[in-house]
Amino acid sequence: TYVITQPCIGVKDASCVDVCPVDCIHPSSGEAGYEEAEQLYINPDECIDCGACEPACPVTAIFEESAVPDEWKSYIKINADFFNGQ
Ligand code: SF4
Ligand code: F3S
Question: What are phi and psi of 42, to 5 degrees?
Fold first, then answer.
């Protein structure tokens, strides 16, 4: 699973959304069924680990789960929690 971390907050460039082949990055702008959020999140149950989103992000917010820098490890759970109850 890939994870979106702190640099996305307030940026939400959304280039990642455009390249994801399974549309598992939410909430894209105005997306039905999702509350607006300060950053975007990857649904760990739907991500197929293709890696396409990682180089697409201009602020290097996206990492494979095992490669998330220590200071942003909490974002692994933050991404997963966003989809609980959706
Ligand atoms: Fe989507 Fe691939 Fe990124 Fe997973 S790794 S969020 S499937 S683009
Ligand atoms: Fe955020 Fe980067 Fe995607 S800023 S919305 S993770 S392209």
Answer: -100, 130
Domain spans of the chain?
2-82
Residue 29 has pLDDT above 90, yes or no: no
Pocket test for ligand 2, best of 4, 26, 42, 72 (most atoms within 8 A of CB): 4
Give the global pTM.
Answer: 0.96
Spatial separation of the C-alpha atoms in residues 16 and 71, rounded to whole Å? 22
Cis peptide before 27 (omega within 30 of 0): yes
Fold of 2-82: Alpha-Beta Plaits (3.30.70)
Q: Is the dihedral of CA 57, 60, 64, 65 positive or negative?
A: negative
Q: Is the CB–ligand 2 distance for residue 9 below 6 Å?
A: no
